[in-house]
Write a structure and sequence with these properties.
51% of the residues lie in helices and 0% in strands.
Length: 214
């Protein structure tokens, strides 16, 4: 009789234990599924904010030949900052190239025997500027200014990538494409209307003005 009672208890307990195991496992899975999802979202967000918002060019763009070889990687390794060499003079559209006198502030003693540095010294002595080739060029018909973006707190690496790792400057990002501009503006809640970057033709403005007059 006692053996039958024990057997009956086991038969009743086993399904209950199994059910409890299913519920517990399901709850744990839901909890664990929720936790990594939140963690994953945070980590992706962190990576997105850490990485520049302008995507890389899908195909390689060779670095243009410059009159004198220059390595951003080598110079930034010494702690130089972008704005120390590139200023934003009026009207603020472009960033400037450094004066040869600026280069010679360091190279009057550093690497002064290198042929490229001696060539820079000749430019400086004759008060001439090096005709650097601009890497990023805004396409015709687009109104764009560095000043507005600098005022908005946009960092150089946002548009130009991590130049501290670039020996020969090339067009590594797709910043001059319409897609990149619109995408970045949308992420930063900036204007995306056509007039933001494109000036309407004069004949169209005249037509609109005539309509308003009438």
């Amino acid at each position: 009789m006692e053996r039958k009672r024990s057997t009956a208890l086991v038969l009743v307990a086993l399904p209950l234990l199994a059910l409890l195991g299913i519920v517990t496992r399901g709850t744990a899975q839901q909890s664990s599924a929720g936790q990594p999802a939140a963690h994953k979202s945070t980590s992706v967000s962190a990576r997105t904010s850490a990485k520049h918002m302008v995507p890389d060019n899908p195909s390689p763009h060779p670095a243009p030949e410059q009159p004198i070889p220059y390595s951003h990687k080598q110079h930034l390794a010494f702690g130089l900052k972008c704005r120390e060499c590139h200023t934003n003079p009026e009207p603020g559209k472009l960033m400037s190239f450094p004066d040869t006198a600026k280069c010679m502030q360091c190279h009057v003693t550093i690497a002064k025997d290198k042929p490229s540095v001696q060539e820079i010294a000749q430019y400086a002595a004759s008060n001439q500027q090096i005709q650097w080739v601009r890497v990023y060029k805004v396409i015709p018909g687009v109104t764009w200014t560095h000043r507005a973006h600098l005022s908005a707190g946009v960092k150089c690496e946002t548009c130009h990538g991590d130049v501290s790792q670039i020996s020969a400057m090339s067009e590594v990002t797709s910043v001059v494409t319409m897609y990149s501009c619109l995408s970045c503006h949308e992420m930063n809640h900036a204007k995306t209307t056509c007039e933001t970057c494109h000036v309407r033709p004069s004949f169209e403005r005249s037509s609109v003005a005539d309509v308003h007059k009438n």
